[in-house]
Amino acid sequence: MEKIDILKYKLSIIVLCFNGEKYIEKAINSLLRQNVNKEIIVINDGSTDNSLNILEKFGDKIKVYSNPKQMGISYSRNVGIEKATGDYTTNFDIDDLIEDGIYNLMLEKIVESKADVCYCDYDEVDEDGNYITKSKYSFDDEVLKDVFKSYLLDKIGPPWWNKMFKASYVKTKRFDPSLLIGEDLSFCLDVFSDKPKTVFVNKVLYHYTQRNTSIMHELSPKHLHFLDIEKKSVFQNLKKKNEYQSELETFRQLMITRAIHSISNLLNKHTKKDVYNYLKSFCTKQTLKQIIKNKNISKSIRFECFIMKTFGIKMHMFLVPIYKKLRNKKRRK
Predict the structure, then answer these.
(1) Each residue of 31-72: pLDDT tens digit?
(2) Of 209, 234, 266, which marks where a domain is finished?
(3) Cβ distance 89 to 165 under 8 Å?
(4) Is residue 87 in a domain?
């Protein structure tokens, strides 16, 4: 087979920066090292630190667009999509790490396969770059037969940063600014509902950094926004058409378990009362019963819901530290 000249194709790499002076220079340099035809689009989301001055030092090597004030992840990513001029589009988070050659391999795969979406495997690292765990996702087939079904059943991870999209395919797609958490989940729900031809690079090329200062580590009503994703029009339209009903129900239940885990993980002596009230607001016995019966959801999650339903939310909260230890032990294997 004739080797594909990937330099014929331009890749738009969208980067968000809000007060990222600690990471932004290293991040941009790691992208500049990538030997592909690229444009690096940085959305400066109203930074008040030295981020903009650092970005300006790169000159015309990158394209910088500044929001007048902090507008959030969804708004900024939408700006990036609108400004992108490449044949393909991807996203990079400034505190993460990537392998040299990541975009070469993904471009080769997506172009060669004439696909709409390509994604690679990833792992998680701590703030010092030390390995924590590999992603839970794995695939036997390089071309997925029913990508939307796989997505609804949580067989494809929701992050954008390990995915590359054909630009023409996502030009009409937008992130939902009303969501303060789960933006990627919602965006990919919209994308995969169109059943794009999707291919997979079976290599760990992206290293996602777990940071204790991220939004996921702050207890607030934002975590309940996971429950709002089912209100998306694509979700409701499929329900009206009576399509993917069991898969949509699994997806809905998985959003509930994401909310349970994200809230429970923030339990400490200061947040105890708030954690209880948040969980009580949506963890009804009927909801928990439905999750327990769903064989598409992992046994460990169903077990936690069983404990909550049978013995109550306070017992669940008492066991949260044990759940955490067991999950971390399993993930590090």
Answers:
(1) 999 999 999 999 999 999 999 999 999 999 999 999 999 999
(2) 209
(3) yes
(4) yes
pTM of the full structure: 0.89
Kindly state the tokens that stand for 112.
């060669």
Residues 228 and 199 in one domain: no
**pLDDT beyond 60 at 213:** no
